[in-house]
Amino acid sequence: MAIVLIAPKKNNLKYWQEKLREEASRQGEEVPVWVWPEVPEPEKIKMAVVWKHPHQSLYQFPELRLVSSMGAGVDHIMQDKNMPSHWQITRIVDEQLTRSMSNYLLAAVLGYHKRMEEYPLLQQQNKWGYSDEPERPIRIGILGMGTLGTDIARKLVALGFPVSGYSHSRKEVPGVRSFAGQPELLDFLQQVNVLICLLPLTSETRGFLNLQLFKNCRKGTFLINVARGEHLVEDDLLQALEKGYIGTALLDVFQKEPLPEVHPFWNHPSILITPHIASVTQPDAAIPQIIANYLRMMAGEKLQNQVDRQKEY
Ligand code: NDP
Fold it and tell me: Which domain holds residue 250?
């Protein structure tokens, strides 16, 4: 039995291939690992490890049972609505990935709080720029209180900030005010002036960050989108910035990546761009859990970090 790697846009697949084989051997199994499209015996493939794979590529493996994302998100997998129901889907949940996301968000939130973007401009003009209000008062709202949302919420609470979280179900995180479901969204938005999107991309959350939502935000809200580009209706953000519903936006993810050279976001004075680097999966951290899940699947045991096919996350 064997594993296939399908991630045509990644350039370090040889490394993944070697490390997956080594890890399987370390965990007691010799498992062939192939990089698609070079798969000598497709009927032996039981597991596919994928990132933005061509959907059709999976259908050439008649014995496929398990599809693992190479990252935390599974939207690239769930967008294929034809997958047979017996395929199980898993994703990566990893401390390092979580810490890395929280560090990005801490840098963004603290920088905004302390107005750090203003000083390089003043310095260029040899201006002292002393202010009696060197800190912006902030109240943070986190859309999506899963693995990543909960970690950053805890860290921001520890720093003394007011934090609210929005999720499907009610959460009990010390110091975090929980808002659950659509009927509580408006109240949630009214509490906060820094809005962080950490929702998974699903049929329900596509286009979640739209003009209607922005209109319900507190004037001048600082928007941070580190989830997926398809959460944001890009034209609506431009309108919301113009009207002042949103004051500044920090975007790590975009409808089209890389962001096209002629996109209006590049030169917008109130948009800050990072190139989808908020948190990147490290193969060495992900590979042990991928192999552990392969062995669990082969033994008919319950998988770790399994995705709910109905919920799409
Ligand atoms: P989780 O699946 O652990 O958490 C998802 C959270 O969103 C849950 O709290 C869930 O609520 C909530 N949620 C889902 N749908 C809705 C909805 N319709 N309304 C309200 N709440 C909803 O995900 P992670 O925290 O691990 O990751 C979140 C996303 O971050 C990933 O899907 C990925 O797209 C993105 N990401 C981006 C990276 C980057 O570098 N920019 C890196 C890593 C991840 P409940 O708990 O009640 O079910």
Answer: 95-273
